[in-house]
Design a protein that fits this description.
The chain is an all-alpha fold. It contains twelve helices and two strands, in the order ααααααββαααααα.
Length: 331
């Protein structure tokens, strides 16, 4: 009897020690970077959408809001779980609140792939086309509903429970149910990455092969194209690097006899959550140029007060970006 009572605290102590050693500092860094980067993307995305009436920014805002939710919802829950434990807490939190974090992850990746599909549509249509305001709103709502249905509501049948160690973990009734659930969820999660990779690959080839011209303005836009292409490459690579290790780890755990290493689990978990801090940083890399462009337009309009025609021209230029008019993707 005494051996059993001392074993349970020891197991939780081992989990806590591993969390402190391999994850605590990393998650603190991810939390700070993700909080700042996603806040800036949200602010700039909403501001740019109002400024240039480009509704593709709805999906940028959706992705940032999803990643913001991962940062402010998932990481604090992990701190509570692995440093304090859920023992003694209401089981409602574990069963119905904790699984909500999966919705944010799903919405983030679905927003990325929808934005990729939109970019393909933009570069393959002449004149330049985008989704309408109504279509963009419908798609954003659909993204969040689908994410909630597949990634959270599927766990609302009592799978998440509080273990004797105070950890909130999913417990499937049998191995078959476990394999079916993990396989479906991971396929739903990886499929958008494949679609986004193909879409962005097509866009990269398209924008890098555009022959815009040789004048100074065209050279600037060509350079802008290349920076956007590099951003897309890094964005897709970051998605694969951060999301797929956890998927591979889960598949190996349910379909092989390989013993799962807790330290590997802690590493792939950090990578998985880290994507929600890295992706908005990549988006922010293009936004400072937009600031300078907006300031230039405003200055030109103020300077050209004595020239009515110049003022009118600048107003037209400020409502439709040079990138849009020359076939270059606005990001």
């Amino acid at each position: 009897m005494s051996n059993n009572t001392t074993e349970k605290p020891d197991e939780f102590a081992i989990l806590t020690e591993g969390f402190r050693k391999d994850q605590l500092v990393a998650f603190c860094i991810i939390f700070v970077i993700g909080l700042g980067a996603n806040s800036m993307v949200l602010f700039n995305g909403i501001r740019r959408r109002k400024l240039i009436k480009h509704f593709s920014n709805d999906f940028v805002v959706s992705m940032a809001f999803a990643d913001f939710g991962v940062i402010v919802f998932t990481i604090p829950l992990m701190f509570v779980e692995y440093l304090l434990g859920f023992k003694g807490m209401n089981t409602f939190i574990c069963t119905y609140i904790v699984p909500i974090r999966e919705t944010f992850q799903g919405a983030s990746i679905f927003s990325v792939v929808t934005l990729a599909i939109l970019r393909v549509r933009q570069v393959t249509t002449q004149p330049f086309k985008q989704f309408s305001k109504k279509t963009s709103k419908i798609l954003v709502v659909a993204i969040w509903i689908i994410s909630a249905l597949f990634f959270t509501f599927s766990l609302y049948d009592g799978i998440y429970i509080i273990t004797e160690d105070g950890i909130c973990d999913p417990k499937w009734p049998n191995l078959v149910r476990l394999r079916i659930h993990i396989t479906i969820i991971n396929c739903i999660f990886i499929s958008p990455l494949v679609v986004a990779t193909i879409s962005y690959g097509f866009i990269i080839l398209k924008v890098t092969n555009l022959n815009i011209g040789s004048d100074p303005e065209s050279e600037r836009l060509t350079k802008r194209n290349r920076s956007i292409a590099m951003l897309m490459i890094v964005l897709i690579l970051s998605c694969w690097i951060t999301y797929t290790p956890l998927t591979i780890y889960l598949f190996l755990g349910i379909y092989s006899d390989i013993e799962q290493d807790p330290q590997i689990w802690r590493i792939v978990s950090v990578l998985f959550i880290g994507g929600s801090a890295l992706n908005p940083v990549l988006v922010l890399l293009t936004m400072p140029k937009d600031y300078r462009f907006d300031i230039e337009c405003k200055r030109q309009r103020r300077v050209g007060v004595d020239e009515p025609n110049a003022v009118q021209n600048e107003i037209v230029k400020s409502t439709i970006r040079l990138q849009d008019r020359n076939g270059v993707l606005p990001y």
